Each structure stands twice: as C-alpha cells, then as structure tokens.
Amino acid sequence: MSVLAAALITLGLFFLVVAAVGMVRLPDVFTRSHAVALTDALGAFFLLTGLAVYHGFSTNTLRILVVLGLLYIVNPVISHATVRAALRSGERPVGEDRR
After folding, report:
1. Is the pLDDT of residue 88 over 90?
2. Does residue 47 contact residue 8 with C-beta atoms inside 8 Å?
3. What is the pLDDT of residues 22-61, one digit of tens each?
4. Exposed/middle/buried for 42, CB within 10 Å: 0-12, 13-18, 19+?
5. Residues 39, 22 contacting (CB under 8 angstroms)
6. What integer pLDDT is reported at residue 99 of this predicted model?
7. pTM listed for this prediction
8. Secondary structure of the chain as H, E, C letters
9. Of 12, 16, 54, 62, which shows the fewest CB atoms inside 10 Å?
10. Is the C-alpha dihedral spanning 84, 85, 90, 91 positive or negative?
C-alpha cells in the first residue's frame, strides 16, 4: 500500500471517529446532525480517495468515485431532512425556551 493511500485512509478514519464521538457526546438531534454532516463528509472523502489511490486506475476506482459523487449529493439532503423532521415533530434545540 502506498504511503499516500495509507495517510488518506487514516485521515478519513480520524474524521469518522470524530463523527462517532460527536454522536455520543452532543445533546440533541440538531447539534448531532451538524457534527455528523460535516465530519462524515470529510471522513468519507478522505477514506474513499485513499481507496481510489490504493487501487490505481481500474474499474474499482471508477466505482469508488461514483459512490463519492453520490455521497456528496445525498449527504446534505439527508441532514436537512433529518433536522426538518425533528422540527416538525416538535423537537426543539437544547437551551431554547419551550413556549
């Protein structure tokens, strides 16, 4: 495995671990969604880029790049839909006045 691929995969795993810690530590769906949407996108980008570098030019690399593109289209939509569903169900952010 090339050093560049290993470094990218390690960096991606770091961001994914930070996202997991954010899911456990943060108090409500709104802050969790914010933390996961940002760090998950970075983690997936570095991880999939590292896998593409590791595989070189092949059909697997094309598949990895398609997954990466779809992830960047779907990730913001999923985050927005989750937060909107929480708001519509009556959930309020922590610290906001309950009226």
Report:
1. yes
2. yes
3. 889 988 888 888 888 888 889 999 999 999 999 888 898 9
4. middle
5. yes
6. 56
7. 0.80
8. CCHHHHHHHHHHHHHHHHHHHHHHHCCCHHHHHHHHHHHHHHHHHHHHHHHHHHHCCCHHHHHHHHHHHHHHHHHHHHHHHHHHHHHHCCCCCCCCCCC
9. 62
10. negative
Tokens linked to 42: 């970075």
1-21 pLDDT, tens digit per residue, is 789 999 999 999 999 999 999
Task: Check: CB of residue 43 under 8 Å from CB of residue 14.
Answer: yes
Tokens, residue 24: 């456990």
